[in-house]
Design a protein that fits this description.
Blueprint (H helix, E strand, L loop, with lengths): L14 E2 L13 E2 L8 E4 L13 E8 L2 E9 L8 E4 L7 E10 L5 E3 L4 E5 L23 E3 H6 L3 E5 L11 E7 L7 E6 L8 E5 H6 L3 E10 L12 E6 L9 E2 L3 E4 L2 E4 L8 E4 L11 E7 L7 E3 L9 E4 L14 E8 L5 E3 L3 E5 L11 E2 L8 E4 L7 E5 L10 E9 L6 E10 L4 H4 L1 E5 L1 H6 L4 E10 L7 E2 L3 E6 L1
Parallel strand pairs: 2-9, 10-16, 19-26, 28-35
Antiparallel strand pairs: 1-3, 3-6, 4-5, 4-7, 7-8, 7-9, 11-14, 12-13, 12-15, 15-16, 17-20, 18-19, 20-23, 21-22, 21-24, 24-25, 24-26, 27-29, 29-32, 30-31, 30-33, 33-34, 33-35
Amino acid sequence: MDNIGERDLPLLAPHVTNALDDIPGGEPNLLPREALQADLKVTFPLWDGSSTDPGKTDTVLLMWDGREVMRKAFQTPIDVGDLFAHIPMAELTEGSHELFYKVIFSSGNENSSDPPIIITIDKTPPVLAGSKDPLEFPFDLIDNKVTARYLQDHANKLPATVPAYDQPKPGDTVFLYWETSPVGSSLASEKVLTEADMSLDLEFDGDLIVNRGDGTRYATYEVQDRAGNLSVLSRAVTLTVDAQPKPLLVPSVEKSVPDREAYGELDPLLVTGGAVVVVPEDIDLQPTDVVTVYWSGFVPSASHETSTPIETGGFRYAIPPSAIPGNIGTGRQVEVYYTVTRAGGKVDRSESYLLRIKEIHIDRFSKLYCEQATGTNPATLKLSAVPNGADFSITPWLYIKAGQKMHMWAEGVDKNTGRDLYLDIFERPVTPGEEGSGVSAVLLRSFLEQHRVNEQFWVDIEVSFDEGDSYLDFHRENVLLVD
């Protein structure tokens, strides 16, 4: 009589420990090459119906393509750690094989794990296209020359395509090599094919190309299938690399005088209408590149940046007059440079040109004058001629600009005490209208009445070109007050 469980339930499938995990579109239970160098271990779970009584024997038969290739006896009770057998290495031939096992119980009854599982053995390396056909590069790689510009225009990548080889499969790995001799030892990139992406389009990374230097380079590839079989090395493509970053050349400033490399001096009297920065024409520019010029001064109002050349497509960039005088002063200099923003967003910065702005002699600036006074050195003002106070004016000075801070005051001699007499006339910014008309103010009659007659007083004005950090004192107006 049959024992319960010996034939009622099918046996669970065997397991090949060394088989690779299945992947979408890949061969089932593919064996790696190294697993073919010895007998193949097969394990199986303890089957139902095995006796727990000692001294009985269950026998396992390994069935390979429908043939018995291994028989192994197990004494009951069976230790689960012993539940394995081996397929002889001689049976591990190329192709797909069916594997299942039978169990002959001590009672004589049999059961099996049928249907079989498929085991795949692949010993054949991938066969490259043609005669080990080389990599294919884009048509726009002129003369197989890889330049910094080419990498910038291609998102810092060098595309390459592997010619279609014989029977590509998911799990195949393509290896790219980039080296000084075509031996296939310096790996540059790799790609594992998948059911979702069987494309043979790959890329060499631009940073790798740059880091491995300029000169003659060889690009090759190999293909390894999922079992580990490696193709021969392809024929090489010879390329010329000229991709090392080249610093952007230093700009210049028209009418400035260089005093040493990357340093210069500019006379502000030569550029009262504004300065001009010149970007070297021999830098490598593409139509999509954006050049931005920076005039980095002592304060924001003495700085400027622009991406608009004076002439479309030109290399000359205008700097407004207002950005010049605020940089006059001991220890001050303008840092002049430019950036190039490439199509991919990469920004390159040039070397800087450090510019010193010469001082302007005070004689070149406008001078205060009193409208009611007569004569010079000193001018004479009659107290009786100014019942509403004296009018003082100054014409627009060099580099006048709305917003510049200014301060006007008067000093003289108190008629009662003989001490200094002082009056703040104003302290305020230049208005837009004063840029063209100049600045005017009234010296109060009360100041004049308090001043000693037949003594001089003077009116002074100072202006800041650097947002109040310093002031330039113009020539004051000395006036002799008389009855």
